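At this stage, I put together a protein sequence along with its fold in token form, as given directly below:
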Amino acid sequence: METVSFTRMEDGTVEDYALLDRLEKKHVARLPDRILAALRGLEHSLEGYRISRLEHSLQAATRAEADGADIELVVAALIHDLGDDLSPANHSQLAASIIRPYVREEVTWTVEMHGLFQLQFYGDKVGLPTDGHMRYADHPYFETCQRFCRDWDQASFDPDYESKPLSHFEPMVREIFSRPPFVPEIIKEHASRAKV
């Protein structure tokens, strides 16, 4: 295995950093594989629901696709709960961080805010406010997040719903997570151009 010569970054050589750059590019190219593996891991995640977190994610993505959502929103619906295991207190923000470099800001904002918006459906049952999302009522992506939560996320806990398998969404995951990161024309695209 090739390794760098340094033990402190400041002591690295041009050759060391060329090696790391080459290896990082190979690592980045395998990101879709790691995303798909993380999704498969949701099969054995948070307990208590009538379906697994993977099935919940598949249902949300299937609903988004059936509703005519574009590829970015479909993949967002698929990965929106990837943060559940490592960051349960702010899973929405972790999932948003995963997808942020590859999609328009409307999609990132929706994933980031979905945890707050979901409280309108159950907050009163756990002693939390149900109207916190309303402070964003004038935000340009408010309606997208409402639709995401109302029509795809909160409705996707049904053991009788026939979702599409992960293999159906795999090409979409590969397309989104193989994009070059932070392309300004992608991440700054305004919601008015996006049809959801």
